[in-house]
């Protein structure tokens, strides 16, 4: 709004011009000062003009009257005030200052201000203080005003059929040319047609020649009425007569400026200069106003226009500056407005109220309410009084910020100052509530507005409908539209558009379409927004026919869809496969909109037409278009989001060949696409090969490479790319910093991650709010047990932040827990309890974990009780943590107690809990508990997983229950579980222990075919099993396969093979193996050479073993008794006792004292000697070396010898290599062989007492009768067997302890000193006729039914005297004899040989019967048995009935199964090889 002062000191408040076009609605727009180049508001058109232009909707702004705007100034009015009309498209209208000349008369509605104080308060200087008018001039001034007013009222009072010419002909008043100018102007303010009629009448009657002032006046009237064509015609007609007058040119320029036709204004300005007419300040102000209305402002445009005015030698005035600031306000360009305002102050041009209003307006528009408030205070400090526009502008600034309290405060101040809330105020606040979603308050304010007598205008209704529509309150929006129509307010284009948008958002197609049609029926033409909304709506509802019809209508009306709408169109058309229509749309984009192929390509890509897009882009590049970076990256992004990576790569290769200037950008895009396509190797290759182009500067390239490397867990690659990124000066983002901190933590480099935090903070990126970053670093420090650094990190975070997140505290507690720092963890826990945040389950678990790692399990229950006393609940996870701790410690009792407590408390066991329990029970070999828990687990609905099955398999493997292993393996297959490496390794070891290495080897091949690799221990077990089965070639093949496959075999493998060669007696291979060891870089040790010497000894070549010993001596190795024992043992086994004794002497001469190894060798040899003389020779040699205990045991009968043996064993207990165990075995063999069995019994019991033998080596307890003689020698086992039978005999006679259903004797399958314990036990028991038989499922186990065993012990003559006694005299010969690994009674040897040679395989019972017969009777019985067997075979051949033959064979087969069975199923898990009676190995 502008102020002009006439010569009579009259204030003028002209109206505000309407813009030429109707822009889209701007709800609650900020009030701003409009261009001061326009003089007044458009006058109201009469009925004849309504057909030529759209009728403008009036908005009455009652505060246009100064007496209302400043009520405290007590201004008086000379005429009734006119109302200022606001345009329909701007809620806060712009105000303008007029360009009228100073001698302009006062308009109706102007106010006479008689005091200077009021004049100065309004921002104007009082001119009365400078110049006063005399009384004559004042009288003349009053007379001409009366004449002009009289004629004006007369013309305006004319009826439509009356003419102005009639009034002029009457000549009632004498008028001057100047008077007529004012009449034309005053009439034009009410009716521009009558003003034009008056102008034409004056010209036609030639009452005076049209002067410049008259032409300028009528041009101004026509300009305000938007009658540009008439103004141009009058200007062209009068141009020759008026001459080159600045005033006329300025008026015509003002006509063009109203519609923003800057080019026309510029042409007139240039024409003025050509004709020698010098432009004045008004000319330049008009030019500036036209430029500001012609389009968006360019940077620094306002200052450029100011400089152009100054270059013309004219100083800008207040109107110039206000025009520029008002334009900046409309553009929301605060920076430019501040620059103009600063220039204004620097040029000492005093700002007025309108300047401050415009500045407050632009600050509000730009979201700077505090700056607007500062200007408001500055305005008051400069002596200006704020008006309604000022308050509304400030109100809008804070309403846009959503500051309800401040808005309320400003409203209260307005009311206190005498201003009431007007329509503009209500509109602003309603819009604020709408944006904040407070629709109920907005509606209430709308109702209050009506109740207070404020009539809502189109803007009010539009704002309400728009806000309700955006909140999806469609019904309320429709109701507001109904109220608008009922109130007689005509909806505008923007009102209809807002309601259409509301309906489209809610998906109500019919209502939206009906509203659109209603708008057109009401005479309002749709604009681009309305067309676009409806077109988009039809497309989304797949109404293709309506959509295309509306599109063509839109084109005809001169509107074009924007790029986004074209994207929706082509997408919908492509979805319907309407490719022909797509081609036509592309043609429209190219021809009608003038879009270049690159932009069209971008639209097509976003619309999903990739092939068309690629084609357009190729055409663009081929035609010489430069590759636009933004469009190119947009296309690549669309390709990437739709995962069309191959097409993207093809396009990039095309561009690489034809756009060499953009090779860097194309390469970067290619790398990004390859990363999106998960082709990291290709992306890295491209990155490394093109790195010489000048280092990549694109952040996206580095981010893509790093993210893809992280997804592929290539953390070293991600770290390298990140280093390149920082080296090349590309600053990482916050998200990338977070990702790299996580990467370094996962790489185990928390120090690097910690340093990265400092680097990010240095670059202004603070990660304090990202808790996960600190948690990762603290946890990694904890895992590496660097809790000090974790503590320092959290301490620094605590100093910077007022409150540390609970998760960070928990991470620090867990960091302490990894190192077992319970006290520090407890201190943090107590701090959380005291200062907050309160601890959680994770905090409690970390505290308990610290105690567990510290090994203080006994304090767990105490700490848990303390936590419960503090009011904390112990969760299930905490209980599980405690249970796991006790499980790892192997405390079955505590684990079961916790488990039962959990069940009692109502905690249902989970799969994880069952897994822990079963793993522990399997580890402790609690078979019954395991089986019970498996049943409980299945009842609870859980199926054992592979980990549990593997644990159970290991359990059964540990107790050699191969049948149960077969059951578990079958469950694995039935449950569709895939066996893993652990499963196969366990099963292969089972085959090896079951003496079935071939089946184990077959299973290992199956394992390899599945891509699983056996462990080295599995290979070792197979080689050992092949060696035990004397399948040496297979063992050698497997060993060579391991070496050829590149396995790094340790010394144990070579020792294993050497032991096998020792057993086989193949010393040559043992020598070759020694060479292989050296080639593999494994130096042989003394143990290795010992094994080599043993192999020579087993092959009967003690001389070679002695050569090895001599070689060892030459190497300078310090020798002990081990290599000598190997050589001595070799000589003694060969029977060369003298050589063995000679080596003993040689060893003593070398200063090596004989130890347990040498003693054991001589005692073993003595126990296997044929006669007592040989044994005494050997034992005398030992006596000569200082160990006389064995010879004394044979010759003396003193009880003191037992105490000496006890002392000897006490000395040997700490010695390694099972020294005491081996010595006891050897002594018992010796004493049993020479019938000193009572002495043997004492030593046996002494070994048990000293825990050399197990305490449960045999048992006779309640329902637990059994024995386990594994690892015992034959003599010691026979002593133990006799003692066990004696105990069981006593129990059978007394009836206590009660026996089980069956009694088990475990002998094992190993050999000790070339003696098979299993064969020896069988021979001894079967000779006695015992009921013990071989177990059907396990090898090396004998089983007897308890009832049969008790009867045998009571009634058998062999059991009448089981007391162990010493022979009165030392027998001359050995009482036992070793035959093919079986140590049997010497007197039984003939019978053994005869039975095994003639009958081959017999049952134990028949063997016992035959062995007891005399020699001649035994031969006859064997012959009769043989003949009887032949007769049965002949009878079987004569049987014709096959069913009878089958039945007989079945009965015989069942009988044979009592003692042995055949392994008929080759690959069945848990099946064992055949048990054969004594002598079968020899016969086979």
From TrEMBL:
<feature type="region of interest" description="Disordered">
    <location>
        <begin position="1"/>
        <end position="56"/>
    </location>
</feature>
<feature type="repeat" description="PPR">
    <location>
        <begin position="1050"/>
        <end position="1084"/>
    </location>
</feature>
<feature type="repeat" description="PPR">
    <location>
        <begin position="910"/>
        <end position="944"/>
    </location>
</feature>
<feature type="repeat" description="PPR">
    <location>
        <begin position="1015"/>
        <end position="1049"/>
    </location>
</feature>
<feature type="repeat" description="PPR">
    <location>
        <begin position="457"/>
        <end position="491"/>
    </location>
</feature>
<dbReference type="Pfam" id="PF13812">
    <property type="entry name" value="PPR_3"/>
</dbReference>
<dbReference type="InterPro" id="IPR011990">
    <property type="entry name" value="TPR-like_helical_dom_sf"/>
</dbReference>
<feature type="repeat" description="PPR">
    <location>
        <begin position="387"/>
        <end position="421"/>
    </location>
</feature>
<feature type="compositionally biased region" description="Pro residues">
    <location>
        <begin position="16"/>
        <end position="28"/>
    </location>
</feature>
<dbReference type="Pfam" id="PF13041">
    <property type="entry name" value="PPR_2"/>
</dbReference>
<protein>
    <submittedName>
        <fullName>Pentatricopeptide repeat-containing protein At3g18110, chloroplastic</fullName>
    </submittedName>
</protein>
<feature type="region of interest" description="Disordered">
    <location>
        <begin position="81"/>
        <end position="109"/>
    </location>
</feature>
<dbReference type="Pfam" id="PF01535">
    <property type="entry name" value="PPR"/>
</dbReference>
<dbReference type="InterPro" id="IPR057027">
    <property type="entry name" value="TPR_mt"/>
</dbReference>
<feature type="repeat" description="PPR">
    <location>
        <begin position="1085"/>
        <end position="1119"/>
    </location>
</feature>
<feature type="compositionally biased region" description="Polar residues">
    <location>
        <begin position="1"/>
        <end position="12"/>
    </location>
</feature>
<feature type="repeat" description="PPR">
    <location>
        <begin position="733"/>
        <end position="767"/>
    </location>
</feature>
<comment type="similarity">
    <text>Belongs to the PPR family. P subfamily.</text>
</comment>
<feature type="repeat" description="PPR">
    <location>
        <begin position="422"/>
        <end position="456"/>
    </location>
</feature>
<feature type="repeat" description="PPR">
    <location>
        <begin position="245"/>
        <end position="279"/>
    </location>
</feature>
<feature type="repeat" description="PPR">
    <location>
        <begin position="492"/>
        <end position="526"/>
    </location>
</feature>
<feature type="repeat" description="PPR">
    <location>
        <begin position="980"/>
        <end position="1014"/>
    </location>
</feature>
<feature type="repeat" description="PPR">
    <location>
        <begin position="1120"/>
        <end position="1154"/>
    </location>
</feature>
<feature type="repeat" description="PPR">
    <location>
        <begin position="352"/>
        <end position="386"/>
    </location>
</feature>
<feature type="compositionally biased region" description="Low complexity">
    <location>
        <begin position="29"/>
        <end position="51"/>
    </location>
</feature>
<dbReference type="Pfam" id="PF23276">
    <property type="entry name" value="TPR_24"/>
</dbReference>
<dbReference type="InterPro" id="IPR002885">
    <property type="entry name" value="PPR_rpt"/>
</dbReference>
<keyword id="KW-0677">Repeat</keyword>
<feature type="repeat" description="PPR">
    <location>
        <begin position="280"/>
        <end position="316"/>
    </location>
</feature>
<feature type="domain" description="Pentatricopeptide repeat-containing protein-mitochondrial">
    <location>
        <begin position="1097"/>
        <end position="1193"/>
    </location>
</feature>
<feature type="repeat" description="PPR">
    <location>
        <begin position="317"/>
        <end position="351"/>
    </location>
</feature>
<feature type="repeat" description="PPR">
    <location>
        <begin position="805"/>
        <end position="839"/>
    </location>
</feature>
<feature type="repeat" description="PPR">
    <location>
        <begin position="527"/>
        <end position="561"/>
    </location>
</feature>
């Amino acid at each position: 709004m502008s102020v002009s002062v006439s010569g009579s000191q009259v204030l003028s408040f002209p109206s505000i011009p309407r813009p030429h076009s109707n822009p889209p609605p701007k709800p609650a727009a900020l009030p701003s000062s409009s261009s001061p180049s326009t003089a007044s508001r458009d006058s109201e058109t009469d009925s004849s003009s309504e057909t030529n232009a759209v009728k403008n909707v009036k908005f009455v702004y009652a505060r246009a009257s100064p007496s209302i705007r400043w009520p405290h100034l007590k201004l008086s009015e000379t005429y009734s005030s006119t109302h200022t009309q606001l345009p329909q498209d701007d809620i806060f209208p712009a105000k303008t200052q007029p360009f009228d000349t100073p001698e302009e008369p006062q308009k109706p509605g102007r106010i006479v201000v008689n005091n200077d104080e009021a004049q100065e308060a309004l921002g104007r200087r009082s001119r009365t203080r400078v110049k006063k008018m005399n009384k004559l001039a004042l009288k003349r001034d009053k007379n001409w005003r009366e004449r002009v007013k009289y004629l004006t009222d007369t013309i305006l009072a004319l009826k439509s059929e009356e003419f102005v010419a009639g009034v002029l002909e009457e000549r009632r008043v004498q008028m001057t040319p100047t008077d007529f100018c004012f009449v034309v102007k005053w009439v034009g303010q009410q009716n521009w047609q009558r003003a034009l009629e008056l102008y034409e009448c004056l010209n036609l009657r030639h009452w005076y020649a049209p002067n410049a002032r008259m032409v300028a006046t009528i041009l101004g009237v026509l300009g305000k009425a938007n009658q540009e064509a008439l103004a141009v015609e009058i200007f062209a007609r009068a141009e020759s007569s008026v001459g080159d007058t600045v005033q006329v040119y300025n008026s015509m320029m003002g006509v063009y400026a109203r519609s923003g036709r800057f080019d026309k204004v510029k042409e007139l300005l240039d024409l003025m200069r050509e004709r020698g007419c010098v432009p004045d300040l008004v000319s330049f102000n008009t030019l500036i106003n036209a430029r500001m209305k012609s389009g968006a402002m360019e940077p620094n445009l306002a200052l450029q226009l100011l400089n152009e005015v100054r270059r013309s030698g004219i100083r800008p005035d207040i109107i110039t500056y206000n025009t520029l600031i008002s334009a900046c306000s409309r553009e929301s360009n605060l920076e430019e407005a501040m620059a103009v305002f600063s220039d204004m102050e620097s040029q000492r041009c005093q700002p007025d109220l309108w300047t401050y209003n415009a500045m407050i307006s632009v600050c509000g528009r730009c979201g700077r309410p505090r700056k607007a408030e500062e200007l408001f205070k500055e305005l008051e400090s400069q002596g200006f009084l704020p008006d309604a526009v000022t308050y509304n502008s400030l109100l809008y600034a804070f309403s846009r910020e959503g500051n309800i309290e401040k808005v309320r405060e400003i409203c209260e101040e307005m009311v206190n100052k005498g201003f009431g809330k007007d329509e503009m105020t209500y509109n602003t606040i309603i819009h604020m509530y709408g944006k904040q979603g407070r629709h109920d308050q907005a509606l209430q304010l709308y109702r209050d507005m009506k109740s207070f007598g404020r009539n809502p205008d189109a803007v009010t209704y539009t704002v309400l409908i728009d806000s309700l529509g955006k909140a999806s309150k469609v019904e309320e929006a429709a109701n507001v539209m109904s109220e608008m129509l009922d109130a007689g307010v005509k909806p505008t284009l923007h009102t209809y558009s807002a309601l259409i948008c509301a309906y489209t958002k809610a998906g109500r197609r019919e209502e939206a379409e009906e509203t659109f049609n209603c708008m057109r029926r009401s005479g309002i033409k749709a604009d681009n927004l309305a067309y676009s909304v409806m077109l988009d709506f039809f497309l989304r509802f797949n109404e293709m026919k309506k959509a295309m019809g509306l599109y063509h209508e839109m084109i005809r009306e001169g509107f074009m869809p924007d790029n986004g709408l074209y994207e929706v169109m082509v997408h919908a058309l492509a979805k319907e496969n309407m490719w022909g229509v797509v081609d036509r749309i592309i043609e429209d984009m190219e021809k009608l909109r003038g879009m270049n192929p690159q932009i069209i390509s971008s639209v097509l890509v976003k619309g999903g037409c990739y092939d068309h897009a690629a084609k357009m882009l190729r055409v663009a590049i081929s035609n010489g278009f430069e590759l636009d970076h933004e469009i190119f990256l947009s296309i690549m992004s669309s390709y990437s989001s739709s995962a069309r990576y191959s097409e993207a790569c093809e396009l990039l290769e095309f561009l690489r060949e034809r756009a060499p200037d953009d090779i860097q950008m194309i390469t970067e895009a290619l790398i990004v696409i390859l990363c999106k396509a998960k082709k990291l190797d290709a992306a890295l290759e491209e990155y490394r090969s093109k790195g010489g182009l000048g280092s990549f500067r694109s952040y996206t390239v580095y981010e893509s490479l790093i993210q893809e490397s992280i997804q592929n867990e290539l953390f070293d690659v991600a770290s390298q790319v990140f280093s390149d990124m920082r080296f090349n000066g590309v600053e990482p983002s916050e998200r990338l910093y977070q990702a790299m901190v996580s990467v370094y933590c996962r790489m185990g480099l928390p120090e690097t991650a910690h340093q990265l935090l400092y680097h990010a903070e240095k670059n202004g990126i603070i990660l304090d709010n990202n808790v996960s970053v600190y948690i990762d670093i603290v946890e990694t420090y904890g895992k590496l047990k660097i809790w000090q650094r974790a503590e320092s990190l959290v301490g620094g975070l605590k100093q910077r932040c007022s409150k540390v997140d609970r998760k960070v505290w928990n991470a620090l507690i867990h960091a302490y827990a990894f190192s077992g720092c319970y006290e520090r963890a407890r201190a943090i826990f107590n701090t959380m309890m005291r200062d907050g945040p309160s601890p959680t389950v994770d905090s409690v678990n970390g505290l308990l974990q610290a105690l567990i790692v510290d090994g203080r399990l006994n304090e767990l229950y105490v700490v848990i009780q303390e936590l419960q006393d503090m009011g904390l609940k112990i969760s299930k996870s905490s209980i599980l943590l405690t249970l796991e701790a006790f499980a790892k410690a192997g405390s079955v009792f505590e684990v079961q107690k916790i488990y039962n407590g959990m069940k009692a408390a109502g905690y249902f066991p989970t799969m994880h809990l069952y897994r822990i329990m079963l793993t522990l029970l399997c580890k402790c070999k609690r078979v019954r508990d395991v089986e019970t828990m498996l049943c409980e687990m299945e009842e609870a609905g859980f199926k054992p997983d592979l980990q549990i099955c593997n644990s159970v398999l290991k359990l059964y493997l540990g107790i050699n229950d191969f049948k149960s292993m077969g059951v578990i393996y079958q469950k694995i297959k039935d449950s569709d579980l895939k066996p893993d490496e652990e499963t196969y390794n366990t099963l292969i070891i089972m085959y090896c222990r079951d003496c079935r290495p071939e089946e184990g080897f077959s299973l290992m091949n199956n394992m390899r075919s599945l891509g699983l690799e056996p462990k080295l221990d599995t290979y070792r077990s197979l080689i050992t099993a092949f060696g035990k089965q004397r399948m040496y070639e297979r063992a050698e093949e497997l060993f060579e396969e391991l070496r050829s496959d590149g396995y790094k075999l340790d010394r144990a493998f070579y020792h294993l093979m050497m032991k096998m060669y020792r057993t086989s007696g193949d010393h040559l291979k043992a020598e070759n193996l020694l060479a292989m060891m050296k080639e593999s870089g494994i130096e042989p040790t003394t143990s290795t050479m010992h094994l080599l010497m043993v192999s020579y000894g087993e092959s009967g070549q003690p001389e070679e073993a002695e050569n090895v010993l001599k070689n060892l001596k030459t190497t300078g190795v310090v020798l002990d008794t081990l290599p000598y024992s190997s050589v001595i043992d070799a000589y003694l086994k060969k029977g060369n006792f003298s050589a063995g004794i000679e080596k003993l002497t040689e060893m003593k001469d070398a200063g090596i004292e004989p130890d347990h190894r040498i003693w054991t060798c001589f005692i073993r040899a003595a126990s296997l000697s044929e006669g007592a003389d040989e044994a005494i020779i050997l034992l005398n040699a030992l006596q000569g070396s200082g160990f006389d205990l064995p010879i004394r045991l044979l010759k003396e009968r003193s009880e003191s010898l037992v105490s000496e043996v006890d002392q000897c064993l006490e000395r040997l207990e700490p010695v390694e290599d099972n020294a005491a165990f081996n010595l006891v075995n050897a002594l018992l063999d010796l004493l049993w062989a020479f019938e000193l069995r009572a002495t043997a019994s004492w030593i046996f019991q002494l070994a048990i007492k000293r825990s050399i033998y197990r305490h449960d080596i045999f048992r006779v307890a309640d329902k637990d009768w059994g024995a386990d003689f594994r690892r015992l020698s034959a003599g010691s086992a026979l002593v133990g067997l006799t003692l066990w039978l004696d105990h069981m005999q006593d129990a059978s006679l007394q009836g206590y302890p009660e026996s089980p259903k069956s009694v088990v004797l475990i002998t094992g399958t190993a050999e000790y000193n070339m003696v098979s314990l299993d064969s020896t036990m069988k021979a001894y028991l079967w000779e006695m006729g015992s009921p013990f038989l071989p177990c059907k499922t396990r090898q090396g186990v004998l089983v007897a039914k308890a009832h049969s065993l008790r009867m045998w012990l009571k009634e058998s003559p062999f059991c009448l005297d089981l007391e162990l006694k010493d022979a009165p005299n030392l027998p001359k010969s050995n009482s036992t004899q070793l035959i093919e690994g079986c140590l049997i009674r010497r007197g039984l040897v003939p019978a053994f040989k005869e039975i095994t040679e003639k009958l081959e395989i017999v049952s134990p019972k028949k063997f016992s019967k035959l062995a007891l017969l005399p020699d001649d009777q035994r031969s006859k019985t064997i012959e009769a048995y043989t003949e009887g067997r032949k007769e049965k075979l002949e009878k079987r051949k004569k049987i014709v009935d096959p069913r009878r033959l089958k039945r007989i064979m079945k009965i015989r087969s069942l009988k044979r199964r009592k003692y042995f069975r055949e392994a008929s199923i080759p690959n069945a898990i848990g099946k064992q090889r055949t048990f054969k009676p004594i002598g079968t190995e020899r016969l086979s």
